[in-house]
Amino acid sequence: MNKIVECVPNYSVGSNTEIIAKIIAPFQNTPNVSLVNVESDDDYNRTVVTVLGEPEAVCYAMVLSCKQASLYIDMTKHKGEHLRMGATDVIPFIPIRNMSIEECVELSKKCAEMIYQETNIPIFLYSHSATREHCKALPNIRKGQFEGMFEKLKDPMWTPDYGTTVHPTAGVSAVGCRPLLVAFNVDLDTNDKNIALQIARAVRHSGGGYAYVQATVAYIDQKDIYQVTMNITDYTKTSVYRAFEAVRMEARRYHVEVIGSEFIGLVALDCLKDIAAYYLHLPSKEDVDLSLSDTVKVVCENFLVHGFSDQKVIEYHLKEELYVDR
Amino acid sequence: MNKIVECVPNYSVGSNTEIIAKIIAPFQNTPNVSLVNVESDDDYNRTVVTVLGEPEAVCYAMVLSCKQASLYIDMTKHKGEHLRMGATDVIPFIPIRNMSIEECVELSKKCAEMIYQETNIPIFLYSHSATREHCKALPNIRKGQFEGMFEKLKDPMWTPDYGTTVHPTAGVSAVGCRPLLVAFNVDLDTNDKNIALQIARAVRHSGGGYAYVQATVAYIDQKDIYQVTMNITDYTKTSVYRAFEAVRMEARRYHVEVIGSEFIGLVALDCLKDIAAYYLHLPSKEDVDLSLSDTVKVVCENFLVHGFSDQKVIEYHLKEELYVDR
Fold first, then answer.
1. Which of A181, A297, B254, B279 has its CA 20 to 30 A from that of A65?
2. Catalytic residue list contains A78
């Protein structure tokens, strides 16, 4: 089987369909690349794109897309609630199939260098690709945001891995290989922020909770409720059902019910099978003898998931005959 | 209020009442020291003693007790299922009241030096008292057990903090200040070791579980069941009710019931109040307005605890007028 990489670039533009069309065109027009998801947020003034495909092809399309973003996004005029430092703010690569972390790191470095050559945007390598300890965590790099980068890059500690000078309108970008994480939110039947926070603190690792869970809270305006918003940074170690059941258990203390949940972005099929196995009383995900659709159904029923469909499973896209074997 | 320290020495002797009487006599005969628990295990061939009291008095009694152990226990003839390296295998000091970690570390060092002066038993400082990183974890020090110590101590890496040569019959001891941990076991309605192991792995930190939980399994012969046996190394971070409810949640997968639980050794009242708060639907332990006895009742009912009583709460002993204010 051929190698598959996932790429989830974040662009500093909201739902401006004209600009987004130009940015995503390279993903639509490059063979062996599949554009699987585009999510824009106007409050954040940010768009997250999900792409799957053959590594070299994804890398090539990513360079073109980044160039488009540098032509049509002007960071000197950008405002938004999400922290940002560049037109293409961050470009994470995630190994999906037949690809080691090391290969994916190499791919990210190649892509970073090509972007710099094509656009003159300086690049920091982050996460697994970082060449310096203090550049591993994206928030460290992004601190100061676009406006602060001009001063920040004068400090030798913050010399980018490629380039030296901030691009006047496209800023700075971060590129790196990171592990596949699950972004998962659980809706609580309460509009009491303090209760939601106590629950989030109880389940997250920093509060004594589960090892691979990061959690905070978010207010959902249209429902007038709070949700516990989580990243499961390694779902093979902390299964997602544990995070879900732990939220339910902590909520019981406050007579609060769990009334729904949602996955943000794509999810791997083995992550869903791991969840299904628990509710089907099976010892492990290998024992789940269900189709992709039936696995999705079991998870949605038990997790009360909304806004999910087969298309949000990575393997759904891998089944399509998009990628030519080499 | 005066300072109170807890000391929980482990001796390499089973239920030999004659020897135990000689070992515990110093705790019974020293003013301002209270002997609160003695638990012997014949399979382990080991006795765990719990003492509370004024720090200097506890230290003094501990030195005398250790000397008794060195006179009556011969490690060259000792066999047992628990790992061990000395007649008095390990001497943990735990700060209970008006005592900082630093003060407790100082006390442990003083005690270690006095023991060496009195008995010639070489001592390793461990846990918070360790002077070297590789000596923090007791299993590292104890590796090789009594029989292997003669060779091990020739390696400069394993030179004891006090003394250099293994005591021919009393071996080696470890002394240190460690935090108050909760030893807590949950009984499962199964004699399937593999199921018990899967549950233990799911709740312990090393398996992606709760941050401050160590867990393994033990077979309980007289009941023909397995139990998940846990150390909660910081119950102020990972509340004990989370560990209990997590075991119950994981057991559900296998249609296994939680049928009981037990605390090993003494437990602090605030740990029990923290548990009670959850089941009483109160936000925190500070909101639990119950007596010591009523708190114990709430915990026992919800945790299905056996073998517990008010006497196993540290504060029960602190209420007695044993310790003269200085």
1. A181
2. no
Residue in the structure block whose two tokens are 């516990």: A228
Domain ranges of chain B: 4-177, 182-316
For residue B195, the chain A residue with the least C-alpha distance is A283
The count of residues in chain B is: 326
Minimal C-alpha gap between B256 and chain A (Å)? 11
Is the separation of the CB atoms in B70 and B167 below 8 Å?
Answer: yes
Is the interface score ipTM higher than 0.85?
no
> B42 Cβ partners below 8 Å, 6+ apart?
B14, B15
CA angle A305, A83, A118 (to 5 degrees): 105
- Would you give the distance in Å from CA B276 to the centre of its chain? 23
Strand ranges for chain B from DSSP E = 4-7, 10-11, 33-41, 46-53, 88-97, 123-125, 173-177, 182-188, 213-220, 225-232, 258-264
The two domains B4-177 and B182-316 share their CATH topology (first three levels equal): no
Q: Give the Cα separation of A269 and A296 in Å (integer).
A: 9
CB B305 within 8 A of CB B259: no
Of A238, A281, A283, the CB nearest to B208: A238
The 10s digit of each residue's pLDDT in A123-155 is: 999 999 999 999 999 989 999 999 999 999 999
Q: Do B208 and A253 touch (CB under 8 A)?
A: no
State the nearest Cα–Cα gap between A181 and chain B, in angstroms: 14
Instruction: Give the global pTM.
Output: 0.83
Q: What is the rounded CA–CA span in Å between residue A201 and residue A157?
A: 33
Which of the listed CATH numbers 3.90.1210.10, 3.30.990.10, 3.40.605.10, 3.40.1350.10 matches domain A4-177?
Answer: 3.30.990.10
Q: Which of A213, A232, A245, A275 to mutate to test the interface with B (most CBs of B within 10 A)?
A: A245
Q: State the smallest CA–CA distance between residue A187 and chain B in angstroms.
A: 20
pLDDT, averaged across chain A = 94
Measured CA to CA, the distance from residue A199 to residue A181 in angstroms comes to 21
Q: Is the pLDDT reported for residue B326 higher than 80? A: no
Which of B187, B222, B181, B193 lies closest to B303 in space, CA to CA?
B187
CA B225 to chain centre: 23
For residue A226, the cross-strand partners are A219
B→A contacts (Cβ < 8 Å), by residue, are 198, 202, 205, 207-212, 234, 236-239, 242, 245-246, 249, 253-255, 277-278, 281-283
Which one is the CATH code of A182-316: 3.40.47.10, 3.40.50.720, 3.40.50.2300, 3.30.70.670? Answer: 3.30.70.670
What pLDDT, in 10s, does the model give residues A267-298?
A: 999 999 999 999 999 999 999 999 999 999 99
